[in-house]
Amino acid sequence: MTVVRQKDLIASVADALQYISYYHPPDFVRAMTEAYEREESPAAKAALTQVLVNSRMCALGHRPICQDTGIVIVFLEVGMDVQWDAELSVEEMINEGVRQAYMDASNPLRASVLGDPEGDRANTLDNTPAVVHTRIVRGAELRVEIAAKGGGSEAKAKFTMLNPSDSVADWILDVVPTMGAGWCPPGILGVGIGGTPEKAMLLAKEAMMEPIDIHELKERGAQNRAEELRLELYDRVNALGIGAQGLGGLTTVLDVKVKDYPTHAANKPVAVIPNCTATRHVQFVLDGSGPAVLEPPDLNDWPDIAFEMGPDVKRVNVDSMTAEDVVDWKAGDTILLSGKLLTGRDAAHQRLMELLQKGESLPVDFRNRFIYYVGPVDPVGAEVVGPAGPTTATRMDKFVGEMLDKTGLLGMIGKAERGDVAIEAIRDFGAVSLVAVGGAAYLVSKAIVSARLLAFEDLGMEAIYEFEVKDMPVTVAVDPSGESVHKTGPSHWRAELAGRIPTVEG
Known about the structure:
Layout: E1 2-5, H1 6-22, H2 26-38, H3 42-61, E2 71-79, E3 82-85, H4 90-102, E4 131-137, E5 142-149, H5 151-154, E6 158-162, H6 168-175, E7 187-194, H7 197-207, H8 214-220, H9 225-238, E8 253-261, E9 268-275, E10 281-286, E11 314-317, H10 323-326, E12 334-343, H11 346-357, E13 370-372, H12 397-407, E14 411-414, H13 420-429, E15 432-435, H14 441-445, E16 448-455, E17 464-478, H15 485-497
Parallel strand pairs: 1-3, 2-4, 7-8, 11-12, 12-13, 13-14, 14-15
Antiparallel strand pairs: 2-5, 5-10, 6-9, 7-9, 12-17, 15-17, 16-17
Helix pairs in contact: 1-4, 2-3, 11-12, 12-13
């Protein structure tokens, strides 16, 4: 008989969450390295370089891969012969493990979970509660798979109820381009087919955490319809040319995982959920012998590469810039920023809009300034700021016109594409939108030399700060003429790949 002790489950959950905050799974590192080695797009290759350099830095420094340290998702398989030595419920034990992991002083993780999602949206401050899925199975073990899923990739989850005769592959090929780059490709697509709507979503979430083995599957060949679909989707999605960070390139997905389940004769529920460049998950087993022991991965799995800027890089100081200084910037240009940036994301923008609507003065002067869409991790030791990668710029699109018009803002920095409304405003006001690499948060933080709180302290990681940066690497996403690299890049590489990547039409 197996007796699982409360303290062992709590400690194992906490250790696992710390572990995945700074260690990519080895299969993911190998797949990213292969993508880096074969990439032909200079912009995509530079992005992949930053992700891999950042990943190795995090493995060595035990700091988060991404500033969005995720919402915790736990899959439990509880053996029917397991007994418990515990005072807390299973979910309470898991949440205590989450609390300890996210509040660990040696490597604090960003609390991103908000209670009352349609109300006050107040931060729970310790990233609880986790989302827990439990199955009761045969045996005398407790199997735990734990993941920390970033909001950018979760936001791109898609579901539909197809007719039985409809093509799953065609639907997915229709929706993947609508996901944009906010999920920080390349990553893994999890596909769930069958069951009921909620079952299909669950299957997709489970699927995306399976090991990357697409090349092994290609070598041995498909043995069932799910494997045939994996191969078809892998080729067809990569042929879209979306590429790393949506900049255009050869690799958009590292693998496609498919799980299915019997369904009603009238239905074909289908879900697709992406996992991003901050793929974080690990599995462990408790058998009554004590807490799980997770062995560090072999650092030789990481490529020994350095992030170096090319000869065409532009170095600029943002402290004295005006619209005239950015008029010649072109979409796709590489820029190294120095000087003082403001920060602010969803909650800060909402509060700024409320002040503008009331005719009240703003706490910060935005005229001719750049704002960085970021919610950093708390610093430790001598750090100025913790990992501080970009959040999805697209979410701020609805604020862009008023910010440019009413505040004199000159530029914005985030990740992913801008929508047509934002692009139009950027063009009309002669502004510029830049992108930093999602999934390179620790690397980006090394360019930040000072940080000072300016406004909205109560918003925590969403408060407005002033960051002084030195040589922060960014790419021009939308230039003052309104050209978007997230449109031109994928379009170019989709044409380039036509005929080169074999695809099977559904």
